Amino acid sequence: MNLNNKVCIVTGAASGIGQAIAERYAAEGAKVVIADLNLDAANATAALINTTKPGMAMAVAMDVTSEDQVNAGVAAVVAAWGTVDVLVSNAGIQIVHPLEEYPFADWKKMLAIHLDGAFLTSKAVLPHMYKQGSGSIIFMGSVHSKEASPLKSAYVTAKHGLIGLNKVIAKEGGKHGVRSNVICPGFVKTPLVEKQIPEQAKALGISEDDVVKKVMLGGTVDGEFTTVADVAEIAFTFAAMETNALTGQSLVVSHGWFME
Length: 260
Ligand code: NAD
Known about the structure:
The chain is α/β, with parallel strands linked by helices.
């Protein structure tokens, strides 16, 4: 399996998991689009990839909650590289509060980034995939697509929602050769998680060490964080496997924290 010259858009690829996926795809021969809210960081990631893979990465400014920005970003990619073969809908944030204190504005922001973002980016790339009769859409879910934790009502709701959207796209896309799958990582030490450690310690009234050892990793088989490389490996398989045998699925990568 390889991704030679496949055009792959990765949202939220200026940091963390998305960045690792973009780097992995480029290493496998893909042309990668670093689509992110943070254009400076996206440009830096693209420049880094272009030092080893000249011309294989481009940065695009994209707020995935904006239909205009999503459509303009996808149009820019198609103008530059002709089509879109792979979409990794990965951009995401975390906001934690107990439900009774959860600000409605934060709830709406969370659902917009995780669900509107997944919908809008999928809607924008599907016509190109249908036209060529092939494509792969990958949603960044979470163990929280299958399991709940206190303080994360909006995140858990949104990540569960992705499982439904994924199955619909798999059913609609099948006859067009378009597959759709979800990756469900456990805790990965990225800026998104680093930010949560002190927040959860405060909200739960425990030490930061206990947040990591008991809350985040207590349910794993070995007390280990999942890594960005682990997630990128699964993202590679979902992108590169070319048959509809693997569609409509969600795969948990979490050191056994959640088992199905
Ligand atoms: P991160 O904070 O390192 O990176 C997120 C990226 O998304 C950033 O570059 C940010 O600028 C971008 N972004 C945020 N809002 C955006 C928007 N509206 N439009 C476009 N880009 C936007 O986070 P990460 O840990 O790499 O998370 C990536 C994805 O993985 C998220 O969907 C997250 O929910 C999911 N996830 C993370 C973990 C974890 O433990 N880190 C576990 C499971 C799932």
